[in-house]
Amino acid sequence: MIWRLARPALLVLALAGCSVPQWMPLIGEKPVKDEPPKAAPPTSVVPVRLSTGGPKTTPPDERVTDRVLAIVNNDAITLSEIQEAIAVYKYENRDRSTTESSDQLVQQFLTRLIDSRLQVQEAEREKIVVEEVEIDEELADRIKKMNMKSREEFETALKAQGIPMAAIRKRIADELRRGRIVSRKVRLRVSVTEEEVSQYLEANRPKLETGLAYHARHILVLPETGAEDAAWENARITAELKRGELAQDIETQILSLAPGQISSPYRSALGYHIFRLESKETLEGDGLTRVRAQIREILFREKFDTRLDAWLKEIKQRAVIDVRLDGQL
């Protein structure tokens, strides 16, 4: 595969929020206020029509840096768009090892860009309008995050790479449209009830309690070989502990106590144990409020991902998608 040189890091960051789908790892649409942030759902791959007819294709000219790889309702997706999205992805994941081949990345990002293009088209059908002032505000925010002194400096960097400002503004507008159509068709139609939160809490209480701290004291009585009497050992547990750090049978005995309570002798493979529970955190009060908020976010993400996937399948089924991958990239 013939690849163009990757964009400089500065330019990649400039394009990160507008050249790729909102659900790409680490980059994409900013979360909407007052809604739990959504996880990045896997892109559903819906079968599309491959171009197999017509004359046999000839090997691409190395001087040609752009090709049409897919047509989505008469809207083209080009090789340069795929390359740019992959460049952003690789830059964002430069410290991670990846096993995907170039062809695998092209296929994955082509599917994602098809999804993205369909969302923009749906937004246009819904007559979702993005005002120029909104694009200006978003652009100014990105320039600020890049620590550039002015818009002129940003435009100079774009010009040096041969990218017109109009292309950047269009991508920002498309991103804003996608966010709004997803909000209208998916996010606003997802809700989580208090009953659902309570059911999840009860079904997963042991797992949710993992990591809560407790403070206990412990005496271990070691049976002496050949003697009936036991030798007492100094306290061995006198510190703050996290649930899951001790053997389950020992921890069960400790956590069954009320704060200040001393246990009956408990026999284990090591000997006889006596515990005193000083204190323990529980899913109550502020802790319970935080856990319920986390559960609500988990359930919201699950429902959001399911509804988004179903919506994408729906719009794909009524779309005309012609993919032109022929293995000669």
Report on this structure.
With 329 residues, the protein is α+β, with helices and mostly antiparallel strands. The chain has 2 domains: 9-192 and 311-323, Triger factor/SurA peptide-binding fold; 213-281, no CATH class. The chain is built from 10 helices and 9 strands. Strands 4, 5, 6, 7 and 8 form a 5-stranded antiparallel beta sheet that branches. It has a 4-stranded mixed beta sheet with strand order 1-9-2-3. β4 and β5 form a beta hairpin. α2 (79-92) crosses α3 (102-125) and α4 (132-145) packs across α6. The longest helix has 33 residues, at 285-317. The chain is elongated, with a radius of gyration of 29 Å. The model is unreliable at 1-9, 17-64 and 226-235 (pLDDT under 50).
